[in-house]
Automatic annotation (TrEMBL):
<dbReference type="InterPro" id="IPR023168">
    <property type="entry name" value="GatB_Yqey_C_2"/>
</dbReference>
<dbReference type="InterPro" id="IPR004413">
    <property type="entry name" value="GatB"/>
</dbReference>
<comment type="similarity">
    <text>Belongs to the GatB/GatE family. GatB subfamily.</text>
</comment>
<feature type="region of interest" description="Disordered">
    <location>
        <begin position="272"/>
        <end position="293"/>
    </location>
</feature>
<dbReference type="InterPro" id="IPR017959">
    <property type="entry name" value="Asn/Gln-tRNA_amidoTrfase_suB/E"/>
</dbReference>
<dbReference type="InterPro" id="IPR003789">
    <property type="entry name" value="Asn/Gln_tRNA_amidoTrase-B-like"/>
</dbReference>
<dbReference type="InterPro" id="IPR018027">
    <property type="entry name" value="Asn/Gln_amidotransferase"/>
</dbReference>
<keyword id="KW-0648">Protein biosynthesis</keyword>
<comment type="function">
    <text>Allows the formation of correctly charged Asn-tRNA(Asn) or Gln-tRNA(Gln) through the transamidation of misacylated Asp-tRNA(Asn) or Glu-tRNA(Gln) in organisms which lack either or both of asparaginyl-tRNA or glutaminyl-tRNA synthetases. The reaction takes place in the presence of glutamine and ATP through an activated phospho-Asp-tRNA(Asn) or phospho-Glu-tRNA(Gln).</text>
</comment>
<dbReference type="Pfam" id="PF02934">
    <property type="entry name" value="GatB_N"/>
</dbReference>
<dbReference type="InterPro" id="IPR017958">
    <property type="entry name" value="Gln-tRNA_amidoTrfase_suB_CS"/>
</dbReference>
<keyword id="KW-0436">Ligase</keyword>
<keyword id="KW-0067">ATP-binding</keyword>
<keyword id="KW-0547">Nucleotide-binding</keyword>
<feature type="domain" description="Asn/Gln amidotransferase">
    <location>
        <begin position="351"/>
        <end position="498"/>
    </location>
</feature>
<dbReference type="InterPro" id="IPR006075">
    <property type="entry name" value="Asn/Gln-tRNA_Trfase_suB/E_cat"/>
</dbReference>
<dbReference type="InterPro" id="IPR014746">
    <property type="entry name" value="Gln_synth/guanido_kin_cat_dom"/>
</dbReference>
Length: 499
């Protein structure tokens, strides 16, 4: 086995200019598939959400999902795209076992939305405009599960299983124009773009944008060109990168790998590559096809789409407040400095805090939870803050329990831990774990008296006016009540007993 050669990153950017192209596939949250009436719910038993149309059986005919077209137009408008006055579907021909028709119904040279842009903000506030080449409609493929191998891929597997539930789910593929001039910040720009796009799609409410479930996937194209070169280099396409962190890592790795290969006199193979989350490395997939290989031709079973200008403008009126506009408003409402807002944006907390406040929590309390304890939990799990299995409404419920005196802050963390562990809503966790604050004074008096009796020297100091010594008794009572007492009330009772 040959040793993988990588170039130091600083040397890469000194000798080469990276060129990126990002293709993001978005599963739409429609109730039914793109061309049939099968449901699209995630997690159903394999091959239970299928019909003759999405299985490609002879004699079946597609019928276009109008809600998917509406979502596609709204996405295009939000990305500052032009909306086609006339477009149509095409057949993209290729054979893979997870595509039961042996072709994918997609759009080729006539996308529904084209020539747009998205401005993305980097961690230091720099804004980079990313051009959008197109946003087109297509259908998703099924899912292959390779069993018996060490890697989960077909090589070395004993057998493969196919689940066609996902085949035919509506997709929008958003393709950027070549992203140039980013230099050393290319990986950061890639992550910032996918983050901004995810936030935008979530605001539009067209997808749940769950990268962990595959409803948002990024293909990262990367090539390098020497500083004095006039043409782009040969690109690779790292397929189906499924987290924001991995998008950044995949681009960075490919830069160091390709640079080392070019510097040694080698050449880049135009191919797809797979990203390994554990190692942060990419590995070769298949030689990359060209458009000619797919033998596109117009789909004969679907009529062209010709959205009227009146309908397009009607849909423009349904666009929500954009994420960046909402952040400017929040900054003003909360009195945040640019640096404070940027810090919240960088950890992905702004919208989560706002949603928690909308659910009834004081903004300051919501901010404290998301940027401290919950951020720690996200870091320890190696996930984005928004990927934690807890909702803003649940965080607001925990904050309300603390405000009502039913929980202490320490107990509240235990409740959050229970929610993160899948134990139910905050109230359910409180009940199951027995975490409610002990507010019965008679029970607290008994615990205080027991602690004072166990530490007579400390009790004497308190009676002599050395109130600071009460801390030891408070600690003993909190231990006896398993942290379920209100420390402030316990202290009051201790002083009362010793007066």
């Amino acid at each position: 086995m040959t040793t993988l050669e990588l170039m130091d990153y600083d040397d890469v950017v000194a000798r080469f200019d990276p060129v990126m192209g990002l293709e993001v596939h978005v599963e739409l949250s429609t109730n039914t598939k793109m061309f049939c009436g099968c449901p699209t719910a995630f997690g159903a038993e394999p091959n239970t959400q299928v019909c003759p149309t999405c299985l490609g059986l002879p004699g079946s005919l597609p019928a276009l999902n109008g809600a998917a077209v509406q979502s596609a137009i709204r996405i295009g408008l939000a990305l500052n795209c032009s909306i086609a006055q006339w477009c149509r579907f095409a057949r993209k021909n290729y054979f893979y076992p997870d595509m039961p028709k042996n072709f994918q119904t997609s759009q080729y040279d006539e996308p529904i939305a084209f020539d747009g842009f998205l401005d993305v903000t980097l961690e230091d506030g720099e804004v980079v405009r990313v051009g959008i080449e197109r946003a087109h409609m297509e259908e998703d493929t099924g899912k292959s599960l390779h069993v018996g191998g060490a890697t989960g891929r077909i090589h070395g597997a004993d057998h493969s299983l196919l689940d066609y539930n996902r085949a035919g789910v509506p997709l929008i593929e958003i393709v950027t124009k070549p992203i140039t001039g980013t230099g050393a910040r290319a990986p950061e720009v890639a992550r910032a773009y996918v983050t901004a796009l995810r936030d935008l799609l979530k605001a539009l409410d067209v997808s749940d944008v769950r990268m962990d479930q595959g409803s948002l996937r990024c293909d990262a194209n990367l090539s390098l060109m020497a500083k004095d070169a006039a043409e782009f280099g040969t690109r690779t396409e790292t397929k189906n990168v499924n987290s924001l962190r991995s998008v950044e890592r995949a681009v960075r790795f490919e830069m160091t790998r390709q640079a080392a290969l070019l510097a040694s006199g080698g050449s880049i193979t135009q191919e797809t590559r797979h990203f390994d989350e554990a190692t942060g490395h990419t590995s070769a997939g298949r030689r990359k096809e060209t458009s000619e290989d797919y033998r596109y031709f117009p789909e004969p079973d679907l009529v062209p789409i010709a959205p009227s200008r009146e309908w397009v403008e009607e849909l423009r009126g349904t666009l929500p407040e954009m994420p960046w506009e909402r952040r400017r408003r929040i900054q003003s409402d909360w009195g945040l400095s640019d640096a404070e807002l940027r810090d919240l944006v960088n950890v992905g907390a702004v919208d989560l805090i706002a949603a928690t406040a909308d659910a009834g929590a004081p903004p300051a309390e919501a901010r404290s939870w998301w940027v401290s304890y919950l951020a720690q939990q996200a870091n320890s799990r190696g996930v984005e803050l928004a990927e934690l299995p807890i909702t803003p409404a649940q965080v607001a419920a925990v904050i309300a329990l603390v405000a009502s005196g039913d929980l202490t802050k320490a107990l509240a963390r235990e409740v959050v831990d229970g929610v993160l562990a899948g134990e139910g809503e905050p109230a359910d966790v409180v009940e199951k774990r027995g975490l409610k604050v002990v507010s019965d004074d008679s029970a607290l008096y008994a615990a205080v008296d027991e602690a004072l009796a166990a530490q007579p020297d400390v009790a004497a100091k308190i009676r002599d006016g050395k109130v600071a010594a009460a801390g030891a008794i408070v600690g003993a009572v909190m231990k006896a009540t398993k942290g379920q007492a209100d420390a402030k009330r316990v202290r009051e009772l201790i002083i009362e007993r010793c007066s």
